[in-house]
Amino acid sequence: MRECYTRPCNFYYGNRARQLIKKKKALSLAGNLNIAFDKLEVFKRRRKKASQSEICSINKIDHFSKKMIFTIKNDIKKITSKRESILGLKFNEPKIMGVLNVTPDSFSDGGLFFKESKAYAQADLMIKNGAKIIDIGGESTKPGSKVINQKIEWDRVKNIIRKLKKKFPRIALSLDTRKSYVMKKGIENKVDIINDVSGLKFDENAFNVIKLTKTPFILHHMQGTPDVMQKNPKYNDALLDIFDFFEEKINFCLRNKYNNKFIIVDPGIGFGKNLKHNLRIMSKIATFHSLGCPILIGTSRKRFIEHIVTKFDTPDRTGGTLASVLYGLSQGVQLFRVHNVKEINQGILVFNKILNTN
Predict the structure, then answer these.
(1) 337 among known catalytic residues
(2) Structure pTM?
């Protein structure tokens, strides 16, 4: 376990960011010259007590212990390093991943796209509305859901995968599955990315399939399993515990000669987390830049929005989703997994334009 963790903060955007970077008064975030930072929040782990943090200038870290300075400098290297493109996807501007649940029981849109014709039409619409990745899932992982047979799961998604790859060869397809059998079948049918919500914990063969085929994957965090994950989840510190999980998994991949440039991290909002945990993660989301990987968040229509807005809740929660997406965008998050692609894309385009005009 680390002694300290580093979050870039006090961001600048557009021309102002470029000017400060040029004058060496700020550092670029993930190699993107349109977003810069000049301060750090350093979190310190304390046994059996809440973590403490201190905000300091990027040039004033000498008062920390030698061990902490070494960690902070290493983190800064990862925070500022350019994120390599994955499958031609460049991370100097936000990317939208459209959700396509080919299931009868997913938490938000279960049954709506269970028929192949409707699933294809929805994917086609999301692509036209600006999605650069389509995330296809054949098994619900909503709270309380049960595992389904791997062959049933593959049968639900196989035809839509083949049809989409044929018509939209330049669109990246992500396969949302925990099972190595489904992963292998998907990769054989030219799926580009694996999105395993269990963080490669459900199926011991999952990593080998990904490694042998050199397939990029989304390292997602979930505490427990879908059937029990929302029954009193607990953390010492949700933000730092999840960071530790990611770092351990990334180091495991490196030790096993898997290229960490193919890894995208997703802290798993709503997967084994209560409102307090979700807010802690979202408010400090930039901490995960210290891992050196692109960051994805999936806040679309999640229950935490209802817990905040209470009587102002709506069926699709577009307003709450957009608010969380735009906050993530301001913190340098690169990928957003959403249902309402057109509305979220509209918000991103307008917000980004304002953010970078100065």
Answers:
(1) yes
(2) 0.95
